[in-house]
TrEMBL record:
InterPro entries: NAD(P)-bd_dom_sf, Sacchrp_dh_NADP-bd. This is Saccharopine dehydrogenase family protein. It comes from the Bacteria. Pfam families: Sacchrp_dh_NADP. Signal peptide: none annotated. Residues 5-105 form the Saccharopine dehydrogenase NADP binding domain.
């Protein structure tokens, strides 16, 4: 029988891409959910699948558990961010109605805190997964794939940079602005130190050229040190293709750090519209890199750089893919994990890349000189 999937935030940048992957697949009975029925109806029409159902749903409204129970999902995919200010009411409502749960959160505290529901999820025989996105899901899959090459892994530094013409939503912009200029904990030199969001800016090599990137507060910073024992440093950076936008964001981060702006995330809709003044500049090419350093099996220094590039505006497909992979594995009955956990170790890098076969995505692995 087909898996009943409820996709919350279906009309958003990432939700709509997940919908296109699941619609028309006989493994799923898909329901699109969100606050605006008109947007959902337009999405369904574009999918060309009249069997897709629609449901108006506001995750912040009262009666969420009852609303989910009435829809009878077997899997809820929560793509309605930003998650930094959310609680676990959607995951708890899934437990109440007997559904599995997957979200696309990239908030450090949100993803790291999902384990508080682990006991309840195990008792109910359900799977609650947080962070099925670029970080920590995709990034940890890359590290896991390369880890066997190392006797001792010492540092993990990874970064992303979207193409300027790539679609952006208010939730994504708000998530970034929420930590700009604010203190963040960094695992550096084998101990916790302090950095600040969007700062420590540097030039990062990508397959398509060098771009500016700055520090970001993501779940990997908290989750990777215990997951990869012996690692002495973990850093994640992100940047914008256009210098004027990247350094404009850096200037705003300094205003936050100096106490001149208190809540930059509230300006996300306005700043997103400003960024779209320049939508014709730059490119539709983005990607990510994961750089690992340590000792190989012979004890010699080893530095690897794994890179992914996405053209034709397919960059947003990367954070959308982990949820698609998990949904397919659940539908096929090959994912038996239970409990509440961050999205790490639930699929392999090969499985993720196979799900990207039909997109303008390429990868490469380079051995770097010391």
């Amino acid at each position: 029988m087909s898996l009943r999937v409820l996709l919350i935030g279906a009309s958003g940048v990432f939700g709509s891409r997940i919908a296109r992957q699941l619609a028309g697949d006989p493994r799923f009975r898909l329901t699109l959910a969100g606050r605006r029925l008109a947007s959902l109806a337009a999405l369904r029409e574009s999918l060309g699948d009249p069997s897709v159902r629609l449901a108006t749903l506001d995750v912040a409204a009262t009666g969420l558990a009852e609303a989910l129970a009435a829809l009878r999902p077997q899997l809820v995919i929560h793509a309605a961010g930003p998650f930094q200010a959310q609680d676990y009411r959607v995951a708890e409502a899934c437990l109440a109605c007997g559904s599995d749960y997957v979200d696309l959160a990239d908030g450090r505290d949100f993803v790291g805190g999902i384990g508080r529901l682990d006991g309840q999820a195990r008792a109910a025989g359900r799977l609650l997964v947080s962070g099925a996105s670029t970080v920590p899901a995709f990034s940890s899959a890359v590290v896991d794939a390369l880890l066997p090459r190392f006797r001792a892994l010492e540092t993990i530094e990874h970064a992303i940079s979207p193409g300027n013409r790539t679609p952006r939503g208010d939730a994504t912009v708000a998530a970034i602005l929420g930590y700009c200029g604010r203190p963040l904990r960094l695992w550096r030199d084998g101990r916790w130190q302090r950095g600040h969001g969007w700062m420590s800016t540097r030039r990062q090599a990508f397959p398509f050229g060098r771009r500016w990137v700055g520090l970001c507060d993501v779940p990997d910073l908290e989750l990777f040190p215990p997951r990869y024992p012996g690692v002495r440093g973990v850093a994640f950076r992100a940047g914008l293709e256009l210098r004027r936008l990247h350094f404009g964001t850096l200037a705003a981060a300094w205003l936050v750090r100096l106490g001149l702006i208190r809540d930059l995330a509230r300006q996300a809709p306005r700043l997103r519209r400003v960024s779209e003044w320049f939508i014709g500049a730059g490119s539709d090419v983005g990607g990510m890199v994961v750089e690992l350093a340590g000792r190989d099996m012979q004890g010699k220094p080893l530095r690897l750089r794994w890179s992914l590039s996405a053209a034709a505006g397919d960059g947003p497909q990367i954070p959308a893919t982990p949820a698609v992979v998990l949904a397919r594995k659940l539908a096929e009955g090959v994912l038996s994990a239970q409990g509440a956990m961050p999205c790490m170790g639930l699929f392999t890098l090969d499985e993720a890349l196979a799900a990207l076969d039909n997109f303008a995505v390429g990868t490469q692995l380079d051995v770097l000189t010391a």
